[in-house]
Design brief:
The protein is built from eleven helices and twelve strands. The protein folds into two domains: 48 residues, no CATH class; 266 residues, Alpha-Beta Barrel (TIM Barrel), CATH 3.20.20. It starts with a helix and ends in a 20-residue tail after the last strand. It is an alpha/beta fold. Helix 10 packs parallel to helix 11. A ten-stranded mixed beta sheet has the order 1-2-3-4-7-8-9-10-11-12, with helices on one face. A two-stranded antiparallel sheet has the order 5-6. The structure holds S-adenosyl-L-homocysteine. S-adenosyl-L-homocysteine (SAH) binds next to strand 8 and strand 10.
């Protein structure tokens, strides 16, 4: 599906045709112009031929039906996108922003596949459109979008922002900015830029370690952006946007899950960020050499954070059986 091509064709038509077509694509979720009967037949035929609505993808559903992973064919590359159906009725789509990733985090499979290219904003939003069509079959809709799939969103800044605007646009997806989250490995320049956007989206930062020594081992990018500067950027983001930031911390057994690491983390965050943040303790999904922390260690870690007044959440684990969980995208990519 090529939105720019669709717009190009409609430019030569009366203005209301654009409106009708947008409604067909984004509200009615048509996957074939033939079904868009408000448009005159010759226009439908032209659109079908030159700008078809089909999205080429392979879908893999988890056994429990709570999640699904789609590999979308973008011609030169495939990207993976994940749907998570929460118990409370939210349907979250996790989108990829790059084919591959340059960041090479030691625990993440996407990093292992190297970097292929940036996706443009259209290639990002068709991932949402794909699952919007899928959910429509059961009378449901996409309620939330997280930029947590393959790639580093802030390393593809302009296209990611365009995609956010388009998701937010009442004429297209109409998904509230507060239901959109962007997760970053901690690119300070990107966070600074984001602080000055008039957007109410949620920011998540993958910290994963309480000090540079450990963080450098897990996330090579942190050599470029040490924790001190990163904390300053996050704190500035909080001040400017008044939005609560999510600090992500992946629990790796014997690596970053000790009680002293918890104390160090609590001290760091309280000192640098104040109050407006939450820590998300992420269970490690097997991708290689690490092991997930034991439940008792996670509990102790969490207790230490909470007893210093920090809010802690634990993310529900989706899609491990279809290799759709965090850090597992790229395993079976074409
Ligand atoms: N590049 C962005 C977004 C992609 S990853 C970022 O780094 O934030 C989304 C989240 O999944 C990040 O917090 C990432 O560190 C985490 N993650 C990566 N590999 C994982 C794994 N094997 N198990 C659990 N979480 C993982």
């Amino acid at each position: 599906m090529d939105l720019e091509r669709i717009k190009d064709i409609l430019k030569n038509e009366p203005a209301f045709r654009m409106k009708q077509s947008y409604k067909a694509v984004f509200s009615d979720l048509a996957d074939d112009w033939a079904s868009v009967s408000v448009l005159p037949l010759p226009l439908r035929e032209k659109l079908s031929e030159e700008a078809p609505l089909s999205i080429k993808a392979e879908i893999n559903e988890a056994k429990d039906k709570k999640s699904a992973k789609a590999a979308i064919d973008l011609g030169d590359v495939w990207v993976e996108t994940v749907l998570m159906k929460h118990k409370d009725g939210r349907n979250t789509v996790c989108v990829s922003t790059q084919a591959g990733c340059k960041m090479a985090c030691d625990f993440c499979l996407t990093g292992k596949m190297g970097f292929k290219r940036n996706l443009d904003h259209q290639e990002i939003i068709i991932q949402v459109l794909f699952f919007a069509r899928y959910l429509k079959k059961s009378g449901q809709r996409v309620s939330n979008v997280v930029f947590m799939g393959m790639g580093e969103p802030l390393d593809n800044y302009e296209e990611v922002i365009k995609a956010v605007r388009s998701l937010n646009d009442p004429e297209t997806f109409n998904i509230g900015a507060r239901k959109i989250s962007v997760s970053t490995v901690g690119l300070v320049d990107g966070i600074n830029k984001l602080s000055s956007e008039p957007l109410q989206i949620n920011l998540a930062v993958s910290l994963h370690a309480p000090n540079d020594k450990l963080r450098n081992k897990l996330m090579p990018i942190s050599r470029l952006y040490p924790i001190k500067g990163l904390m300053k950027a996050i704190s500035n983001y909080i001040k400017r946007t008044k939005r609560k930031v999510m600090i992500e911390y992946i629990m790796l057994s014997g690596i970053n899950d000790s009680q002293s690491a918890a104390k160090e983390l609590a001290e760091l965050l309280k000192k640098e960020l104040g109050e407006l943040f939450t820590v998300n303790l992420i269970a490690y999904n097997q991708t290689g050499k690490y092991e997930a922390s034991k439940a008792k260690d996670v509990k102790k870690f969490k207790d230490i954070l909470e007893s210093s007044g920090i809010e802690v959440v634990q993310r529900y684990k989706f899609g491990r059986d279809i290799k759709a969980a965090c850090g597992q995208l790229a395993g079976e990519i074409k």
